[in-house]
Amino acid sequence: MVINCVVYRHGEREEHVNIDEVSDVLKEDKAFVWLGLYQPDAEFMHRLQDEFGLHELAIEDALVAHQRPKIEQYGDSVFIVVKSAHLDDSQRISFGETHFFLGKNFLITVRHGSTEGYKEIRARAEKNHAMLCQGPGYALYCLLDFIVDNYSKITATLSERIGELEDGMFTMRFNNNTLEKVYHLRRELLSLRNAAMPVTEICPQLVRFHEDIIPKNLRAYLRDVQDHAHHVMIDAEDMRETLASAMQVNLALVSVQQSEVNKKLAGWGAILIVPTIIFSMYGMNFPDMPELHTHFGYPAVVAITLIICCVMWWRLKKAHWL
After folding, report:
1. Per residue in 193-210, pLDDT tens?
2. 94 and 217, same domain (yes or no)
3. Which of 204, 222, 253 is the last residue of a domain?
4. Nearest-angstrom CA–CA distance, 105 and 137
5. Among 36, 53, 237, 317, which has the minimal tally of Cβ within 10 Å of its Cβ?
6. What is the per-residue pLDDT across 277-301, written as a single tens digit (0 to 9) for each?
7. HSE toward the beta carbon, residue 170, CA cutoff 13 A
8. Is 319 helix (H, G, I), strand (E, B) or coil?
9. What is the pTM (predicted TM-score) of this model?
10. Is 81 in a helix, a strand, or coil?
11. Burial letters for 118-151: b for 16+ Cβ neighbours within 10 Å, e otherwise?
């Protein structure tokens, strides 16, 4: 489906055009077309192939989602695939794809999956006439910058959630629900890292090998996008390591707690074994046991048992077993 198809002349938004009229605009020197699409069908994409002179392999890739992020050159145009991401209502990362066809006087964006629209980005770019007159390269920069900024927002949100987990690490045990959350967080961070990493390779390739499409004054902006993507990649990896460390620390704490419980059980067991042995011995009812016939036999046995138990309790308490 066509979101919009707009002509820009000298950095100014001129008009919406039909696809059949694009070929006339492409012949102009100071004009370019910015076309936005969402999950177009094959018939429409083949129309674009004829109008813009796009390569058939790039058209095939743009029709199918779940492409690997990449940058490829086909003649005078460049085909780019980038993963987009945002947090959905359940605060889980939702990934989509944006495919870019970039030429000297056109930019085509093809969105697939769960992606945010680029209406606000287009409006923001249109306010900067001086940069927009540089051509579609600036529009591409605005979109890449928006995608990477979303990466950064996600890492900031996930960092807060991980901080909450760390704060509660020493006061709670990880139950199955918490472990599941940690596992999904690590998976999402890995996916986010894998989405940001190709951007760090795409931007320098645009700067070095496509000087005819990317003006010199845009290269610093693309390097800035590359730097931000690199930071996202590092932050995502650091947070994954933090979660792994949190799980290891919590498992160690659980092991220590279990050891403390075992020590207490062993200590009380040692204390209780004393009366068990003594009372079981005197419960055998042999008639020739001399202590059974003494007047102070019973209180003496009870007193000795209590003294031994108290001494053992004191020693075990001193050794921090109780």
Report:
1. 999 999 999 999 988 877
2. yes
3. 253
4. 9
5. 317
6. 877 877 776 677 766 677 777 787 8
7. 2
8. coil
9. 0.79
10. strand
11. beebbeebbeeeebbebbbbbbbbbbbbbbbebb
